Amino acid sequence: MQPEDLTPREAWERYVDRRRPESTEHSTKSYHYRLKQFVEWCERQQVERVGDLTGWTFENYETHRAGEDIAPITLRNELKTLRKFVEYLERIEAVDDGLTEKVHVPTVDPSEKSSDVKLATADAEALLEYYREHQFGTRDHALLEILWTVGCRLGAVRALDVRDFHPDDQFLEFVHRPSTGTPLKKKDQGERPVALADTTADAIRGYLADGQRWDVHDDHGRKPLFASRLGRPTANTVRVWTYMATLPCIYAGCPHGRKRDTCEFTERGHASKCPSSRSPHQIRTGSITWQLDAGLPPEVVATRVNASVETIERHYDKATPRERMEHRRRAYVDDLDIHS
Fold first, then answer.
1. Local confidence band at 115 (pLDDT 50, 70, 90 cut-offs)
2. Which CATH superfamily is domain 121-279 in?
3. Same fold, 3-112 and 121-279
């Protein structure tokens, strides 16, 4: 078979397999699902060979996806991935040189590139105050302490082992362990020690000392710091834990006029539907904003959360202009007093 005779599905499978060794599991899944839409559309349009792909094909596909009312950033990401796929097809001589340039990647307004939804500082403080006083050392308490005060990603907190907590020196060590199922997003570049505040370290100590952690190992014989009854939790399980842990009715009355005893949002399978519960990513966004407001230099925050300063400023810092003035610039105003 000549490369141009590959079906879109065959080429898609080969491309994802080629990317797998150099990508994290999360990135590989992203390539898979973003291109899946295009492959299934090609099959419905009876495009049987990648050699038949043209600029008109991509134009029609973009029009089709845009008509499905998806978010602009979603469409942009799908077409960026499609362009990379066509670059691969060019490299293996399955399509004509230059076809990549015919995949249009739309521009997106900067305000649409990331969500403004975050765990607000006031809500985080109220939640942590409640946990410290009423549920000290529970799994939800220790998890929220780490996610808020460190600002790490879901995959990073899921990857932690008991041995990665150093109680005497009060720090967490994030380690890239792909061979045993817990890669970090930036691989070796994601490895780092992160110092902990006393309150966070105390919460982890309490969680480990009070029997709150399931005494289990994962499939590789490792002891996950945050364990489920069956071992290391899936990413979705950790996500559900954070939705449950950030329900506002835990520490105050429901801001949505519901009664906790009868509200379906308090159930595990529905907690994500509560308008005020938050995912790990939304906690991370709030944490980064809070750390910057607290006066930590952007370079320090970037190291703690494992992101570039540019990425933090563009995608994670969700402070309003008023908040930036109050929390980050007000302290310097006295220096401008000409009489000082």
1. low
2. Intergrase catalytic core (1.10.443.10)
3. no
CA-to-CA dists, residue 296 to 107, 152, 257, 283, 287, angstroms: 33, 16, 37, 18, 12
Residue 22 has pLDDT above 90, yes or no: no
Q: Which of 47-51, 60-64, 104-108 has the lowest mean pLDDT?
A: 104-108
Give me the CATH topology for the region 3-112. Answer: DNA polymerase; domain 1 (1.10.150)
Which residue, among 222, 215, 269, 278, has the nearest Cα to 250 in the 3D structure? Answer: 278
**What residue ranges do the domains of the chain occupy?**
3-112, 121-279
Count of helix runs (H) and strand runs (E) in the chain: 13, 3
Beta-carbon contacts of 305 under 8 Å, excluding residues fewer than 6 positions away, are 150, 151, 152, 153, 284, 287, 288, 291, 312, 316
What type of residue is 103? V
Please state whether beta strands 192-195 and 171-174 pair in parallel, antiparallel, or not at all (unpaired): antiparallel
The whole-number average pLDDT for the span 273-290 is: 93
Give CA torsion, residues 32, 33, 39, 44, to 10 deg.
150
